[in-house]
Specification:
Elements (H helix, E strand, L loop, with lengths): L3 E3 L8 E3 L17 E2 L1 H8 L3 H9 L11 E3 L2 E5 H12 L5
Antiparallel strand pairs: 1-2, 3-5, 4-5
């Protein structure tokens, strides 16, 4: 699919516009889901999304990595795993 090129500008520069936008399906409601997005996990833990990704990669010294499942480039966190990880981290244990 080629973008539409319009030469309507006075200085003759081309401007491209996309004909079709991508429509994404919304996520199911949070209550019946078994998993959380990084944004929802950050909200549940009371930290930033960047901190959730640092915890996931194990970059914070003295704290065990946050368990997650990756699907391509996306990562999701199971509620039970996050709760278990949080209890373990609060008790001061390292994995």
């Amino acid at each position: 699919m080629e973008p539409h090129i319009a030469l309507e500008q006075p200085n003759g520069l081309a401007r491209t516009t996309c004909k079709k936008t991508r429509h994404r399906r919304p996520l199911p409601p949070q209550a019946p889901r078994d998993w959380l997005t990084p944004n929802e996990t950050a909200h549940a833990l009371g930290c930033s999304i960047a901190t959730v990704h640092r915890l996931r990669r194990g970059l914070i010294r003295g704290i065990a990595p946050l368990p997650c499942s990756q699907y391509g480039r996306k990562c999701v966190f199971r509620r039970a795993s996050v709760a278990r990880w949080q209890d373990h981290a609060e008790n001061g244990g390292l994995a």
